[in-house]
Give the backbone structure.
Amino acid sequence: MWREERRQIVARFLRGVAADFARTEQFAKVVTSLTPNPSKRNEAIRAYLRFRFRASYRLLSGWVTAGKPLSIGPLIHLTNLVANLSAAAENAMEQLELPKANS
């Protein structure tokens, strides 16, 4: 019973982290589309993080679905990928030029 409850909790957590990643990725895309000269480096970082997240997410989801025990380390890694994507979006935001107010 405890094992099944824990599996369900971890599965819900994974879905939540995936939703966070998707929202952050969408935000990063919008910011990049507003940037006059998007950085190739930032785009490469986003692509790398997207690949790492998807690969890790699929691996962990399969692991949880199979009912295998999972340590906290891989879950922390997944949340760190979301944080890294958020930082990349913030970096892209810094490249935006805000219009100057007319005095």
Observations:
- Helices lie at 2-34, 40-65, 72-94.
- The chain has one domain: 2-93.
- Residues 2-93 form one domain.
- The chain is about 80% helix and 0% strand.
